[in-house]
Amino acid sequence: MIANAKPLPAVDETSAGYWEATARGELALPRCSVCRQFTIPPTIVCPACGTTEPNFTYVPVDGDGTVRSWTLVRDAFLPGFADDLPYVLVDVELDAQSQLRMIGRFTDGPDSPIRIGDRVTVTFDTIADGVAVPSFTRSPR
Amino acid sequence: MSRRDLFTAHSRVAIAGYAQSPIVRHADRPLGAIAVDVARAALADAGLTVADADGFTTGSLLPTAGGQASIDGVSVVTANWLAQALGVNPRFASGFQGYGQIPGSVSLAVNAIASGAAEVVVLHRALHNPPRGRYHANPMTQARGIAQWTAPQGYWGPLSMIALPYNEYLQRYGATREAMAEVVVEARANGSRIPWSFWYDRPLTIDEYLDARLISDPVCMYDCDIPVDGVAAFVFTTAERARDLPHAPVYVGGYAQGHPTRHRLPTHWPLDDIMDTAQETCARLWSHTGLRVQDVDIPQLYDGFSPFVWFWLEALGFCPVGEAHRFVQDGGIGVAKGGLPVLSGGGALGNGRMHGVPQMLECYLQLSQRAGDRQLPQAEVGLACHSSPHFGGAVMYTAHPL
User: In total, how many domains does chain A have?
Assistant: First the structure.
């Protein structure tokens, strides 16, 4: 094990489709097979339609969205992030569906001015061999 | 007074006494030993003995943020553990597992007494600050279960959790950290007058607040309550029995809880989620008690993180949504300034991380006229708010039956 490695996702049957896609540089989100609404993270009962058999499938989305909030993290509470301090986390509402929000690193860095309402798009941060984590970067104008 | 349409047990159950341990960073004794002493002291304060106690309840959630194992009697103290340690075989023992802890625990105590399941219920809250490691740090190398949706991205713990809706608020309403300084300085001013407080005799200035280290912008260290060891206990009994005991009874007028309905990432609390559910929590509170916001003399707002004070001010209707930052800067809160005494008990920021105990205790002390030199002249109706308004609740207390 590498010293100060970041926590790696423990891929399971509910998340395999997500992490396989990110490794390919693609954002694919869990969609209920009954009501076809996205839900992050996937769960036992679909929050949108209430089915107890949502059988979520991973469907690619473009990863564009709008910044709803952000924070500049100056203190690391998880291993592996100390060397990255300070880093910006953005709270993004995805275009794919109203109220569908993700949180990720803002890869443009702490010196890039950011405002609520800014447009961002997904990018991928490779943290280990074959493991890529979705992050966000400012959308090209 | 509007129609009271829900809570038929109002005024039937009262608090008869209390005890509070010193609030310290790390106690030199096991938490369970402190809890037993505090429970015995609370019963004695109420003019009762351990043999009178036939019910026990608590909320024993947390600390869990650091991933430490939870050990009963050491890092948590459950209702059953306390009863057994006191040598009691209780008729009723139950714990509330959700967030907010105290409204859920109070509802268990009140419902048990009002239904006749128990007559004297000890409600305690024991908080522990682990002796090793950092409170929120987690050494995970693998992010399992729902943690895999946030931890690999570096989103972890309650500081970034509150930073996101706080920043959302600042940007949306043009608020500033200068306005939040009013909240934190007020909590510390009042806490500095409380002998058991961790911050006793240590008020904070506006400049000290503004110069404090930022942890997850815009959250600075003084926006967060400090982790502590401490125990408080309250004795609940029937209104009839309480009237024969030494101290003036403080009645439970009603309570309301809320729970978020939107499915989110773990510890993701968008501002609109907080405020939308908050409206429901507070509407329930008013219809449950038949009281209005203007009736509340002693509103004790939860402040485990300072932005919650703004959220509660707006949710309860003390000021319009988006205006709490101006309200506090215009002298709307503050004992010395003649504003609302929303943190007269020092809150969590002025006592330490007692998870809602300071709000409950201040309502009890003021309404029973036991607040000493901090006693406020008008103290008939108290409201103790706990946790986030979308993930906790509030309890209404009255000095006289409603």
Answer: 2
- A72 C-beta neighbours (distance < 10 Å), count: 21
Which CATH number characterizes residue A109's domain?
2.40.50
pTM attached to this predicted model:
0.96
Structural class in CATH, domain B13-133+226-398: alpha beta
Q: Give the burial string for B228-257 (b: 16+ CB within 10 Å, else e).
A: bbbbbbbbbbbbebbeebebbbbbbbbbbb
- Residues in A closer than 8 angstroms to B271, CB to CB, are 69
At residue B272, does pLDDT exceed 60? yes
A54 touches chain B (CB under 8 A): no
Q: Is A99 an 8 Å CB contact of chain B?
A: yes
Contact A77 B159 (CB under 8 A): yes
Looking at residue B131, its pLDDT comes to 81
In a domain, A2, yes or no: no
The Cα–Cα gap between B46 and B249 comes to 10
Distance of CA B360 to the CA centre of its chain: 6
- A53/A80 same-domain check: no
Residue B150 and residue A40 in contact, taking contact as beta carbons nearer than 8 Å? no
If you write DSSP's letter for every residue of A40-96 in order, what string do you get?
SS--SS-TTT--S----EEEEE--EEEEEEEEEE-S--STT-GGG-SEEEEEEEETT
Asked whether the bond before A110 is cis by omega within 30 degrees of 0, the reply is: no
> Please, which pLDDT band fits residue B98 given cuts at 50, 70 and 90?
confident
Same domain assignment for residues A32 and A99: no
CA distance B233 to B86: 14
Report the complex ipTM. 0.96
More confident residue, A83 or B65: A83
In one letter, which amino acid is B245?
A: L
CA distance B261 to chain A (A): 9
Answer yes or no: do A72 and A96 share one domain.
yes
Which tens digit of pLDDT belongs to each residue from B3-38? 546 789 999 999 999 999 999 999 999 999 999 999
B267 touching A (Cβ < 8 Å):
no
- A51 is a domain residue: yes
| Separation between Cα atoms, residue B191 and residue B305, nearest integer Å | 15
Q: Would you say B284 and B390 are in contact if contact means Cβ atoms under 8 Å apart? A: no
Q: Which residues contact A132 (CB under 8 A, 6 or more apart)?
A: A22, A23, A25, A124, A125, A126
Same domain, A57 and A105: no
Q: A52 and A95, same structural domain?
A: no
- Domain that includes residue A139, residue range: 63-141
- Calpha distance B189→B160 (Å, rounded): 27
> Are B164 and A69 inside 8 Å of each other by CB?
yes
Mutate to test the interface with A, among B153, B213, B274 (most CBs of A within 10 A): B153
Query: Does residue A23 sit within a domain?
Result: yes
How far apart, in whole angstroms, are the C-alpha atoms of residue A31 and residue A22?
16
A113 plus A45 within the same structural domain: no
